[in-house]
Structure formats: C-alpha cells, structure tokens
Amino acid sequence: MQNSIQDEQNINDKKHTSYKMGSMPIPKLLLVMSLPAMLSMLVQALYNIMDTVYVGMFYSGLGDTEYIAATQALSVAFPIQLIITAVGLGIGIGANAIISKKLGEGNRPDASKAANTAILMAFAALIIMSVIGIFATKPFVEIVADASGEGGLVIQYGVDYLFVVTVFSAGMILELTGSRILQATGNMKIPMIAQMVGAVINIALDPLFLFGFQLGVRGAAIATVISQFCSAGITYTVILFIQKEVKISIFKNKYSIRDILNNMNVGIPAFFLNAVGALTYISLLRIIKGYALGGIVQQVLGLYFKLNSLIFMPIFGLMQGLLPILGYSYGAQNKERYKAALKLSTMLSLGILLIGLLLFETAPELLLSLFSAGSSTLEIGRSAMRIIAISFPFAAIGINLINAYQSLQCGVRSLIMSLFRQLGIIVPFAAIFANFGAWGIWASYPVSEFLTTLIFFPQIFYVINKKFKQDGEKHNANLPNSSEPLDGERSAIAPTVEAEQY
Q1: Are 131 and 265 in contact (CB under 8 A)?
Q2: For the whole prediction, is pTM greater than 0.85?
C-alpha cells in the first residue's frame, strides 16, 4: 500500500514538473527557472568584487605603489580564475544540456549516466588544475605582468594569490559542475543557497585574513577557496543524498568514451566561452606589456572585469534558466516554445545590459571608487568604462545565440562563434591600435561584439528550423506504432528539469 502511494506521488510529481516545462507560460517559466540563479550569480559578483574591495582598502593605506601592485596582481591572476571557472562550467553545462534533453525525452537512465560522467570528469579536471598551479604559477605571472613600475611587487603578490586559488581549485570546479547537474534535474534553490552561503563566508573571511591575520593577497585567496569548498559541500550533499531525479553511483556507473565525448560536444563551446575570454585577456596583458602602456592599464583592465560582473552575472543566471527550457523544448520537439523562450530571454538580456550601459557611461568614477582608486586609476579607468560599455547591447544578443547553439547541440558552430568574438577580432584589433594608446585596447570590445552579432544573428533562424526538422523526422521514423503515446502524452509523465558565462 505504501509503495502504491509512493508510486502515485512520483507520477504526480512528474506530471507537475512536465506541466511546468511543457505547458507553463514562457514568461512565468523563465522567471521561475532563472530568478534564483540570477540572484545567486549577482551575489557571486558582489563577493568577487568585495574580494578586490578589501584588497584595495588594505593596500591603499600602504601607499600608491603597494596599492597598484596588489590590485594589478589580482588583475593578472584573473584569466587563470576564468579558466578554472571555464573548466567547471564546460563540464557542468555539457551535463546540463544532455540531462535536460534526456529527461525531456523520458530517458532517466541516460540522464543518470550523463551526471555520473560529469562528476568523474570534474575530478580529473581538478587534479590537472592543481598540478598546473604547482608548477606554472610563477612562470605565468612573470610572462604577463608589467612589473616595471612596482619593483617586483606585482610578481610577488600575483604568485601569492594565484598559487592558492589554482592548487585548491577543487571547490570551484566541483561546485560549478554539481550546480548544473542539480539545475538540470529540477533544483534551482540549492545551487542558489550554496552560492549565497559561499558568498557570505567569503565576505566574512576576507577582512579576517587581510586585516586580522595580516596575510595580504594570500589571505584573500584563502578566504576564496574556503568559501568555494563550503558551496561544493552543500551542493554534493543534496546530489548524493536528497535529489532523486538522477542516480549517482560514481563507482558502479559504466563509463564510456562516447559519454565523455557527448558531454564535450556541448561542454567545449561553453568552456571556450570563458577560456577563450581568458586567452584574450592574457593576450591583452601581453599587448599592454609589449607597448609599455604601464601596469596601471593592466590594473584598470582587471577592475573593469570585476565591475562588469555586476551586469553580466545576472545574464549568466538568466542563461542557466534558459538552457534547460531550450533543451527540454528541443527534446519534446516544441519549436514554438523554444523560439518564444529564446526571444524573451534576448529581450530581457538587452534590457539588463542597457541599464549597465547607462551606469558605465554616467558614473564610471563612482564605480571605480569602490576599489579605493587613486587619481591616476580614475583617469584611465573613466575612458575604459565608457568605451567598453558600448559593446553591452551587442553582447546581450551574442550570449543568447551561444546558448541557443549549445541547446541544439551545435557544438562546432557555437565554438566558432566563441573564437570569432574573442580571439578573432579583439586581439588583432588591440594589437594594431594599442600603438596609439590604451583606447585601442578598450575599443576592441565593441568592435568585436558588433561584428559577431552582424554575422551570427541571421544564422540562428536557419539553424533552429533545420535542427527541429531533422530531429522531428528521426522521431517520427522511430515511433513503433500508433498505440504508443504521442509527444504530449509521453512528456506528461516524463521526468523533467525545473532548472538552473561573458
């Protein structure tokens, strides 16, 4: 009797979640799916900024040289942090797209296999990143940092900070992967709670390690990794012991190269969306150093990216809610809902980034003052904020396009777009025009986003129609007989997702 009641409850839960994914009005569904992630990503942005705020406060009292060196060191370390984030996001988004599609098809065993494969890949990745941190931290900082004006302090601070966050990057990689698994299985709240708890811990520990223990930038790094491990702990407690949509059995699961490649087909473009940005960032640091524009320009570049996270992190949260909706609609062959969700998300992204454009154009000094910026930093940073912000509206479209390609499992096309908008335009443009001053670095961003939108936006309509037509023909050909449930009937009992990068 108890089993019968439980079975009935499970069916009712599946019908409820399937209604949300397949029938709930798109505006309400996107809000339900995205708002928790947007809030948690905004909190993530705030505590990333607070990390630099505390460092700026600590070192501004020691003099301009110490202040510029410390904040420049964090700027130099930033691309490696982007790569670490890219690894976790790549594995997690690859799993998210596959899990949401399989659940949309009603295929829970394959969804579970995708989740287990992603966790295995995350463990392999964290080992690789730790080894890189041990042996490559100092050489990297020496290659990219312009330390001419700070007497080697940038090298010292950069190594102190980067060694800790790279060697102990396990918390970040595992949390990012686990959050995307939870989001694909219908749980938005736990990833949000995990990130918020991590943010609060980081904000609390930063002043303790910086001002209390006087550990400087190394203290900020220690606070960061502790908070990441706390977030990962919450995430995996739920994955292993509470959620029921996918079965986690890491040691019993049968792994295959094909499962790993399936994850990578979607995950590699997501990885490049962040990793290519990191490579671009590294290239810009080298260009700045090569043209002797000064360490302060490197510092401003890093401060800009800290500030832009306030605007872009909510967009990434919106994408986390959008991707499962697109994946489910694609798996269920509902093109109208797919297009409606993509259109609404693009409009919301444009609205958010237009607000960001207004803020960066009218109040750059106010934003930079958060980091205790001096007059020289304010002078260079003012023009940087205003020029780069021109790219925001075009970036809104580009980010949605990349997520659409990922949901359709068009890995190559998404990868090409990521490469084009980053390495393909920004670096060559900056390398040419940096000869005329720092404005050449800043102007490369709006030029890149405009050309990317101009080229790739018209293609998305053709790709959507083609992919839905191809999968629709395969689906119809595989229907055994007319007695089998139709799409709408099958999706009414199929497990689904409720849930979850510039």
Answers
A1: no
A2: no
Which residues are within 8 A (CB) of 29 and not within 5 positions of it... i.e. 6 or more apart?
20, 21, 325, 341
Kindly state the tokens that stand for 499: 């849930």
Report d(CA 225, CA 198) in Å as an integer.
Answer: 9
Q: What is the pLDDT of residue 473?
A: 60
Q: Which residue has the higher pLDDT, 209 or 489?
A: 209
**Residue 114 in 3-state DSSP?**
helix
Lowest mean pLDDT among 71-80, 136-145, 149-158: 149-158
- Asked if 100 contacts 491 with a C-beta cutoff of 8 angstroms, the reply is no
What's the rounded Cα separation, in Å, for the pair 59 and 160? 15
User: Strand (E) positions, 168-295?
Assistant: none
Residue 371's H or E segment, with its range, is none
Q: Is residue 24 pLDDT above 90, yes or no? A: no
Domain extents in the chain: 26-472+484-491
- CA–CA separation, 148 vs 442, rounded Å? 22
pLDDT score for 475:
55
CA distances 45 to 51, 202, 384, Å, are 10, 12, 20
Angle, helix 64-105 to helix 216-241, in steps of 10 degrees: 10
Please state the separation of Cα 440 from the chain's center in Å.
Answer: 27
- CA-closest candidate to residue 256, choices 152, 384, 113: 113
Q: In three state form, how does the secondary structure of 165-191 look?
A: HHHCCHHHHHHHHHHHHHHHCCCCHHH
* Contact call for residues 248 and 395 (beta carbons, < 8 A): no
Q: Which of 322, 267, 454, 438 is nearest to 38 (CA)?
A: 322
For the four alpha carbons of 293, 295, 298 and 304, in that order, the dihedral sign comes to: negative
Q: Please give the Cα distance from 180 to 279 (Å, whole number).
A: 24
The alpha carbon torsion through 135, 298, 369, 361 (nearest 10 deg) reads -130
Q: Tokens 């007695």 sit at which residue?
A: 483
Cβ-in-10-Å burial (0-12, 13-18, 19+) of 326 comes to: buried
Q: pLDDT of 395-425, one tens digit each? A: 999 999 988 988 887 877 887 888 888 888 9
Sorting pLDDT into bands at 50, 70 and 90, what band is 270? confident
